[in-house]
Structures are given as C-alpha cells and as structure tokens.
Amino acid sequence: MFLPKIIYRDQLGQVVFTLKQVTKLLWQSNPRFTIFIFILSAIWGLLTFPAFYLEKLILDKIVGNIGHPNIQQVIYPIVFLIIARLSVELSRNILTNLLFFLRQAASKNFHIRLELIIAKKLSSLDVATIEDPIFQDRYNKVEREAGRRAWGLMMPLTDIPNYVVGFISSVGILYFLHPLIALGVVVISLPWVLVDRKFIKKWYDFELEIAPHHRVRGHISHYLIRTKNFLEGRILNISDYLIRKMEKVHGEIISRELAIQKEQEIAKTLTFFPSLLFYAAVNIYLVIQTIGRVITVGSYELFLRSLLAASQNFSSLTTSIMEIYENYV
Questions:
Q1: pLDDT digits over 128-164, tens only?
Q2: Pick from 139, 257, 265, 272: CA 20 to 30 A from residue 196's CA?
C-alpha cells in the first residue's frame, strides 16, 4: 500500500505527519539499525559540551600560567586536558564512522522497503490507470527520483537526534551567559526557515508543472539512444529533428530551474545579514565582559563556540526537517 495522502491543513501538521511516516518506514525496514543510529547520533551531539568545556579549561590554564617560572609544574595539567580533549575528538570520529556504516546499511533496507511498496501498489492497478497520461507522469517521477529521495529521507532523519542534543547543549551554555542570547539564536534563524519553506513549495510546484516536459524528454531519449531504433530513425530521417526537440525541452527545464535557483540564493543571502549582526553584537558583548574580567578568556572562547554551534545546530535541524518534507512530497 502507498503512504497515506497528506491532508493540507497547516505547514506544521504536514511536517509532523511526514516525520512520523518516514520514521515508521525506517523502523519497519530495520528496527535495530533505527535504535542504534538514533542513540549514537544523540551521543555525538552530547559530546559538544565536554569538547567546548575542555577547550575553555586549556585556554584558561595557558593564559593563567603565562610567565610562570616553573614550566614543568604547569605543563602536566595542560597535557592531561589536551589528552582528554583528543579523547573526545577520537570518540566523535569513531562515532562518525560507525554512523556512516549504519546509515549505509539502513539506507539499503529503506530503499528495498520502498521498492516493495511501489511493486505491490503497481501490481494492484488496472490497465486504464496504467495507461493514463497523468498517472504515467507521476509514476515516471517515482521511477526517476525514488532512489535519491529515499536517501534524502533517511539521512536527514538520522541526523535529527544529533542536532537536537547539540542545540540544547549549546543553548544551555549560552543561557548562563544571558537568557536573551539563547533566545536570540532561535529568533535569528526564523527568517531562513521561512525562506526554506517557501522554496520547498516552489520546487514541488515546479516539478508538477514540468512533469510533461520530462515525459517528452524521456520518450525522445528512449528513441534516440536505443540501437534497435537506429534504422527507423535513418529511414525516416527524423533523428536531427528529435535531437533539436530534446535540446529545446532540456533548455526549457534548465532555464526554469536556474530562475528558481537564482531567486532562492538571493533570498538566502538576504537572510544571512540578521544572523551576522547578531553574531557581531554578541561578540562585542563577550569582548567587553572579558576585558572587564567578568569572564575569562577561556569562557570567551566557550561562549563564542557555543553561539556558533547553537546557530549551526538549529539551522541544520530545520534544514533536515525541511529536506525530509521536500523529499517526502
């Protein structure tokens, strides 16, 4: 059976519905892989805090012992902290490799699951439906994009625990600096989220509108690149005409894609400025706090890294959710 049809009540409802359906599919393809991937992804994000805090301690130790007469007395604690920091990085590297392996395996199971769903559905349809041009447009899109869309559904989903835990850890650190800064990280990311949502809808509408062009291109391409059609094309002398026709169809598809892509990149560039101003303001605030000896140099580094990590994790989280929604529809 096919997945249930989305009921378009509101954007948030669509996203929640999508996440549930994709998680259900991944779980059905292999429950063990799903559990392992989510747990390991969350642990990877959880290691953000110890990594940043160890860097803070190292920096404070170095700054606090500049000019110390006995270097051997101060070097051992610093070396111990460096080893601890490297251990955290090693753990994250091992987790990254393990997650990659599990995702590859889960992706194969996920893709097979989707193929079985498509095969069962196709075998249940009647001839009239199969020969319907509208159905053919939709099914050709399924055949053309099912593989990469399956990966595009699974990969962002397995990254969500990492981004959620990493975001909570980073915002938790910023909360101790100032609650408004923690809130600001979320607020400055909203314009980018709105832009992303807008263009997901645009790309989806574009794919529906361009489907007939893809069908024509597919028919012409099938005729031109099959050797069994060579003699027919030579006798009828239509190969040159079909090549020009295919070039024209390709040109129309690409020109419309580039127009939307250009508009999207301009919008994304404009949404970058609020986050840049916020980052600059917080950076200046941290410099003042450091010069006034309210916080240490190590704390300055800790809060600055946390600010960047929180922003990146929130943006990555929303990107993953939007990618899942885009690939699902």
A1: 888 887 787 777 777 767 666 666 777 788 888 999 9
A2: 139
Instruction: Give me 231's structure tokens.
Output: 């003699």
Cα–Cα distance, 43 to 2 (Å, whole number): 34
Say what the pLDDT of residue 216 is.
Answer: 74
**CA-based angle 129:150:43, to the nearest 5?**
150
Amino acid at 48: T
Query: Which residue's entry shows tokens 């920096």?
Result: 59
Alpha carbon distance 326, 329 (integer Å): 6
Q: What is the dihedral of CA 20, 21, 22, 23, to 10 degrees?
A: 50
Whole-structure pTM value: 0.69
DSSP states of 182-212: HHHHHHHHHHHHHHHHHHHHHHHHHHHHHHH
What separation in angstroms does the CA of 31 have from each of 24, 36, 160, 279, 281? 10, 9, 17, 41, 46
Cα–Cα distances (Å) from 195 to 8, 121, 308, 316, in that order, read 19, 35, 21, 14
Q: Output the furthest CA–CA distance in the chain (Å, rounded).
A: 94
How many whole angstroms separate alpha carbon 324 and alpha carbon 150? 10
Which residue type does 8 have?
Y
Q: Where are the alpha helices (DSSP H) in 124-229?
A: 127-131, 133-177, 179-224
**Which residue type, as a one-letter code, is found at position 309?**
A
Task: State CA 189 to chain mean position distance.
Answer: 15
3 state DSSP class of 8: coil
